[in-house]
Amino acid sequence: MKDQFLGYRRENGAVGIRNHVLIIPAQRQLNMVAQKISDMVPDTKAFISLGELGRPREDRLVLQRTIVGLGMNPNTASVLIIGSTPGAGYDELKVEKISGEIAKSGKRVEVLLLTEEGGMYSLLGKGIKVARDMVLEASRAVREPFGLEYLTLGVKCGMSDSTSGICGNPTVGRVFDRLIQAGGRAVFSETTEVIGAEHVLIRRAKDETVAQKILNAVEETEQKAKSVGEDIRETNPIPENIAGGLTTLEEKSLGAIVKAGSSTIEDVIAYAQRIEKPGLYFMDAWMSSLSLPTGYAASGVNLFMYQMGGAGVPGREFPLPAVSSGIVTPIMYLTGNYQTYERAEDNIDFNSGTILQDLETPQETADRLMTMILRIASGAKTKAETFNHQDPVELYFQGPSL
Amino acid sequence: MYSQKELVIMSEADNIGIVKVPVTKGQKITIGDGRPDNVIEAREEIPFGFKIAIQDIKGGETVYKYGEPIGIASLDIQKGEMVHVHNMEGLRARGDLNASE
Questions:
Q1: What is the nearest CA distance from A196 to chain B, expressed in angstroms?
Q2: Is there a contact between B93 and A232 if contact means CB atoms under 8 Å apart?
Q3: In this structure, is residue B51 part of a structural domain?
Q4: Which of B3, B8, B71 sits opposite A247 (nearest CB)?
């Protein structure tokens, strides 16, 4: 039977798996107002960033791509933008600019300005009123069945241990292959964790140009590590990796890249860059789980998969590395380590450690994962979604801070 | 991937395997799959998921996993010993080695 999920069709034909109203402060001083509106109105998400001030143009463009991308993401039903006054702020982030870009998706975009509402108090009240109306309207949407060609998945591996390259990442890789074959879209990233595995990865690049882009991205990251005189072993593998049996960055990288499966890599995209066509993409970005989910969400990812090792993470019922950092894109936690799953079943959605226990074949495990993904895409919550918490996010800026 | 009772070997070209269960010193481990020596003896305790040398690896020789180099042995490693940060090292993105490049 064809893989299907129940999603929300948006005005531009894209399909969402969630139905959030997104509240965006156009300037940093409006973070509090945006957050307070969101606190008052369920089913809304506020995008609170560390702001635009004193950042060079390239980084302001990262912020612009992120804001516009989160608004465009099909998990977002409609967007409320809170600004200060007409034409205020840096060119790239003017309220007219970002609202105009998001409105191209055809979805409802409302703009409220501090000066027009007569100050902070009335802006807050008006924001709550408009947000409630938008939530009511969004809630009338009905889910419809769609095939995998309407789904975009993103993956990151974290707290990796030796099971990651054996069970966890290969299981995600099989699911990615099935998604791509069905005409869907997928993205992987973490350039530092390609170092030592780039020769394997470029065999799958669509052409010479894409292969060269991958090599350039890796070279640039490796040079950054060297330029600060860093022995990368003291930064990556992280102590949790080493405690989990991974010894070198090369070993970690070779185990990490299998999470992307075996499909052709169509292109290398920048942080928060929109995925325009079906296929598998590599995002040249930072591995942090408080950064990458946001960049993926801005690129159009519906569901973010955090594939964990976890052997090096101490304790039982340990907290999640990141909660809600995808803003409108839910985070699903997976592990390839059955001991990790047993220790933190409350927080982890999927266990592929069954492969090393000889309880399931890799194919059976991947089939089970696909079933779970379709269920989550149809509205079942991930375990991380049952927290009312929004971690601060750190966009992937290059600096310098000026 | 070659999975045996106590061990996984990711590729034929590998000189290490990964233990699927905690291994005790002196434990006999089957490696199978047509390799000349079918059984190795663990020379020390090895935790779940850690690497064990399935051949002797001399200091400076390449360590292979997934059929690819993952670094070099920093000491002579005997078959049956655990392989980790105490006896091998990576070679990539090593800013501390800049002087010698």
A1: 7
A2: yes
A3: yes
A4: B71
Q: Which amino acid is at A104?
A: K
Cβ contact B36:B55 at 8 Å: no
Q: What is the DSSP letter of A245?
A: T
Q: In chain A, what are the helix, strand and coil shares in percent, each to the nearest 5?
A: 45, 20, 40
Can you read off the two tokens belonging to residue A212?
Answer: 């060269």
State which amino acid sits at residue A243.
A
What's the mean pLDDT in A180-188?
98
Rounded distance between C-alpha atoms, residue A205 and residue A263, angstroms: 9
Assign domain A20-138 to its CATH architecture: 3-Layer(aba) Sandwich (3.40)
pLDDT digits (tens, 9 = 90+) for A75-133: 999 999 999 999 988 999 999 999 999 999 999 999 999 999 999 999 999 999 999 99
A115 to chain B, any CB pair closer than 8 A? The answer is no
Please state, in angstroms and rounded to a whole number, the distance separating the CA atoms of residues A111 and A113.
7
| Contact residues, chain B, for A199 at CB < 8 Å | 68
**Amino acid code (one letter) for A147:** G
Asked whether A158 and A287 are in contact (CB, 8 A), the reply is yes
- What does the domain layout of chain A look like in residue ranges? 20-138, 148-386
Question: Which two structure tokens, joined as six digits, stand for A235?
Answer: 């930064």
Task: State the residue range of the domain holding B47.
Answer: 2-96
ipTM confidence score = 0.91
Residues 6+ apart with CB under 8 A from A128: A37, A40, A41
CA distance A209 to A34: 42
Angle formed at CA A354 by CA A353 and CA A355, multiple of 5 degrees: 85
Is B50 near chain A, with CB under 8 Å? Answer: yes
User: Is the model's pLDDT at A52 over the cut of 90?
Assistant: no
pLDDT 10s digits, A324-344: 999 999 999 999 999 999 999
**Cα–Cα–Cα angle for A202, A205, A209, rounded to 5 degrees:** 95
Q: Do B98 and A226 touch (CB under 8 A)?
A: yes
Question: What tokens does A304 get?
Answer: 């973010």
Chain-centroid distance of CA A374 in Å reads: 18
Counting the structural domains of chain B, the total is: 1
Chain A nearest-CA distance from B36, in A, is 25
Q: What is the pLDDT of residues A275-293, one digit of tens each?
A: 999 999 999 999 999 999 9
Alpha helix (H) residue ranges in A139-194: 169-181
Does residue B101 form part of some domain? no
DSSP state of B46: B
CB atoms within 10 A of CB B85: 15
Average predicted confidence (pLDDT) for chain B: 87
How far is residue A300's CA from residue A335's CA, in Å, rounded to a whole number? 24
pLDDT at A124: 98
